[in-house]
Amino acid sequence: MAANPYDQASRYLAKLDPPPFLAWLLRLRREALAFRRWLDARLVRFPGEPDRTCDTVAFLEDVAAGGVPWALVLEFQIEPDALMFGRLLGYAGSLWLELKPSPERGDRFHVGAVVVNLTGQGDCSRDLAWPEAGLRTNLTVAERNLSTYDAAAVLEDITTGAAPAVVLPLVALMKGGSESAIIERWKELAGQETDARRRADYGGLVLVFAEAAGCRDVWKAALKEWNVVQSQQVLEWQAEAHIKGKAETLLEMLEARFGSVPIDVSERVLGIRDVGRLKQLAVHVMRCVSLQEFQSELSKEGSGTQRGPGEKS
């Protein structure tokens, strides 16, 4: 499953400054946890999505408990997923089996999960009990519904140091996140960042999240003069989204003309990174008389030529 811009932006944000960001999500004091690293969980598949792995699994230690190791799944969703309980249950089990904090025999991670809903409100925790039978299955997830957060309160927490500056891009998703006074205060706080690249990232990321919240135009107008340097990372995501949209449109055209499209054809079309080539193929769809004729054109040399994110189509 190809990552959407919101997935990419969320994961990029989490990795900008992991220790304070994770402490904020877990509602812990910064010194209560030790962040060791992001775990390589590429061999552990996320249930229900066979082509996807979760690359945001943090290796944390519970300081108060003497350094107990935790594998913490950090999952971002554009909106709540009704099946998330089952997926997390399966994923946590696979993590427990496949990953270890050390080579020592029998050493295992404690496993847990944080789910961040960018929009909407979810509750994927479950406590399934049958007391008479002595059965109980419990999964308590730290679920954060950003639409319930008060933007003004979070900005005040950032001002006092109770919240880290790295959460600034999420403000657009919170209550009051599109108000002019909130945006002006946001600009003041983000403008205090001395690292130009980090400051550009804050500006680029908040525009991505503002789009999810339906207030991108307001934020874009407010940041027109503020964000002098554009985030190169966000520009790359936007270019990828543009290419993906062209490829999906091409597949829709194929389906409209010839019915169901074979998986190998779909995969090849979605793998094309050259917008110009996608446009050529779109013209060819209208001219060819069969799917086989289109496949012949698709197989020609150059069908996967890559164009850099910064090149114009």
Structural notes for this entry:
It contains eleven helices and nine strands. Helix content is 43%, strand content 16%. β7 (126-130) and β8 (135-139) form a beta hairpin. It is an alpha/beta fold and 313 residues long. The strands form three sheets. It has a five-stranded mixed sheet, sandwiched between helices. The protein has helices at 5-14, 18-26, 84-98, 151-160, 180-190, 196-213, 216-222, 232-258, 263-270, 275-287, 291-298, and strands at 33-38, 45-46, 49-53, 57-62, 68-77, 110-117, 126-130, 135-139, 142-145.
Number of strands: 9
Strand content: 15-25%
Order of helices and strands: HHEEEEEHEEEEHHHHHHHH
Span of the ends, CA to CA: 25 Å
The percentage helix is 40-55%
Helix tally? 11
Unreliable segments (pLDDT under 50, ≥5 consecutive)? 303-313
Which structural category do the helix and sheet elements fall into? alpha/beta
Largest sheet: 5 strands, mixed
Q: In angstroms, what is the radius of gyration?
A: 23 Å
Strand and helix map with partners:
Blueprint: H1 5-14, H2 18-26, E1 33-38, E2 45-46, E3 49-53, E4 57-62, E5 68-77, H3 84-98, E6 110-117, E7 126-130, E8 135-139, E9 142-145, H4 151-160, H5 180-190, H6 196-213, H7 216-222, H8 232-258, H9 263-270, H10 275-287, H11 291-298
